[in-house]
Amino acid sequence: MPRVILGYIRAIDAMNYFIGRFAMYLLFVLVGVLLWSSVSKTLFTSSHWTLETAQFVMVAYYVLGGPYSLQLGSNVRMDLFYGGWSVRQRAWFDAFTVLFLMFYLGVLLYGGINSFAYSLGRPYNATTYEFLSELLSTLFSQGFDAAGDKLGFMERSNSPWRPYLWPVKSLLCIGVFLMLLQSLAEFFRDIGRIRGEAL
Fold first, then answer.
1. What are the domain boundaries of the chain?
2. CB-based burial of residue 83 (10 Å sphere; 0-12 exposed, 13-18 middle, 19+ buried)?
3. Backbone angles phi, psi at 91, to 5 degrees
4. Please, which residues bridge with residue 156 across strands?
5. Half-sphere exposure of residue 150, counting CA atoms within 13 Å on the CB side?
6. Which of 75, 68, 72, 73 is nearest to 19 (CA)?
7. Which of 187, 173, 183, 169 lies closest to 67, judged by CA?
């Protein structure tokens, strides 16, 4: 394998390992939020923020832990035939099926970016690319206040707490992008196994 591909695999694996290990500890945050929700419902007036915060933490745990799970090979597989195949046969099958995963993740990322732009108040007459590129160029050239003026009516949840939705939608886009990068690394790793190289 070329050194560029080996470097890519090592860099993506290291990044997703670090992020995945961080995401594992979000379960403790989730337990704390749900524990507070139970205590506040029993002893005090119930907190409106606990259920949605628990959902947001679970989204972060799931989408940031996905690439790490793929890296470790701990994703769910149908093992009817796969378990009896040789390493090379598995690599051929994995290299073929990961292309479908990358296509799915690409479509999911496209929809996620559009949803993220909508949550920031993208006007109906602007495309997502135009809106986000103008927002970022304004942010870097004129600062936060000028970029804030470009934002439209920002999407909020319909719950009584009414949090903004752009943080969780941006986190979803980041997680899907990381999963796409890890899928590409797995594809390269499978090609290496087909060629008889251990990566």
1. 3-75+86-120+155-194
2. exposed
3. -65, -40
4. 164
5. 21
6. 68
7. 183
